[in-house]
Amino acid sequence: MTPLVVIEGLSKYYLRGDQVIPVLVDLSLEVAEGEYVALMGPSGSGKSTLLNLIAGIDKPSSGTIRIGGIDIAALSDAELALWRSINVGFVFQFYNLMPVLTAFGNVELPLQLTTLSRPERRERVEAALALVGLTDRAMHLPNELSGGQQQRVAIARALITDPTLIVADEPTGDLDRATAQEILGLLGRLNDELGKTIIMVTHDPKAAETAHRLVHLEKGELVA
Amino acid sequence: MFVPLLVLKNALRHRLRTILTVLGIVVAIAAFGLLRTLVDAWYAGANASSSARLVTRNSVSLVFPLPISYAGKLRQVSGVTGVAWANWFGGVYVSERNFFPQFAISGASYLDLYPEFVLPEAARHAFLADRQGAIAGRKLADKFGWKVGDQIPLRGTIYPGTWTFNLRGIYDGAETSTDTSSFFFHYAYLNETFKQRYGRSMDSVGLYIESLEDPSAAATVSQTIDAMFRNSYAETLTETEKAFQLGFVAMSDAIIGAIQAVSYIVIVIIMAVMANTMAMTARERYAEYATLKALGFGGGFVALLIVLESAAIALAGGALGVLATFPLARAFASTIGSLITGFEVSRETIALQLAAALAVGMIAAAIPAWRAARLRIVDGLRAIG
Predict the structure, then answer these.
(1) What is the pLDDT of residue B338?
(2) Are residues B107 and B184 in the same domain?
């Protein structure tokens, strides 16, 4: 399969005073289009940093990250924002929904950056909410929804722009076991039925089992 | 519609906080408007005065009078088209609390010089025909419920005894800024009664007013008049009516300066309060701003949300503050009575109030908006709202 994500010689370090703290060290990785990858590792291993770099919300200290042939490390902030809005769908551990917007409004949010008309947006949002099984909850505010329902809204928001890549940072970390299984099943369907490439950070081995491939990180390096 | 709707929903998110902030702005803007109106009222006399009229007074002080014989000489000065005189009376109507300006005037010549005092022709005739007659401004008459034909008793403080006047007319102002809270009666009545009571004539007046053929010649005519009476026992000081009025205002410059300073300090205080509110609001929403940025919205968009929310709250408070100024000004004006005339909220004050409210909103949002725009997404996502 064609690689969608190609990472070469990627390093990320932080400076604390004069001290250099390495987070990722000369890391190389490929993720094929349509693949479902789970990133695992102990706390501080750099898995979330790697996910942030792949999603284009952080910048590497050195190395290249090519996604769909574009070196996103070389893009300006504005170019990166535009690239993210088209190519990446985000699923966060704590859902990160806008509390003042309904489920419908939250899912519609990324479409506000497009030139789609209101009826076109409505059609897409209804389809996305139907896909995650929340049609009847469209007009509910996030605080009127359970954790699992909020995460489903977040997933609908992640796929509303039909991105090539979905990044999920501990998507089941705040959910009970049964609800976590529902969410993992939903992510699996996105991968199987819609062919979305998914990269998921998780601590949970059971969640990692649902992925096609497991990538382990330790102290900023990939472990075979 | 998306942005205004999001701004509105965000503004109403913490209702109590928003209501208290709006309330604070209402109080500040209304206080600012009231103080500005007070300053305006202080200058109202000077602003309403004419540059085509001169005022001549004793050069030593306004307290010292000028001889009535000067009138004939003043009429002969080149460039002077009319001469009138007035004398401060300083009487008390019923109680000391009922202060209002009272002048003994030179009848027809005085009224001719002040066309801004609009008096019906019949009332003018009645006033001029009655030596004990008087006219009062509309505001004054309304305040005490006077009507034409009433007898108005004044207890003299400078000129002892009770003086009774027949109200022959009520004048209106040609402009809204014209003072209609004064009381005028005949100088002749004052002079003659004084002679009857004290066995000697006053034959002196507080000040003369001259109308000019050419207002641009005011300086030359003033110098001519003062030169004419130099080295006499009552030397004169002549200046335009505006300069004369501003001379009164200048006596209270320090007070006016302090009032103006307080009006701006009130705005600075509410600006600090609002800035604190907006900083707190923005800090609580860092995770949301980071999420918006992750989804592709720019830093400018996030900053815009904060600025618009702040401006909306400030303008809502500003508009309510402007509305509150009118009843406050009315209540204040009725409390101080005729002590300060022309106590009206001007359009300029309303514009200043709204501009101040907008400035409060924009400046209060500046730093939170700048910080949110520069917020790194990864840092924002770690923030706990």
Answers:
(1) 58
(2) yes
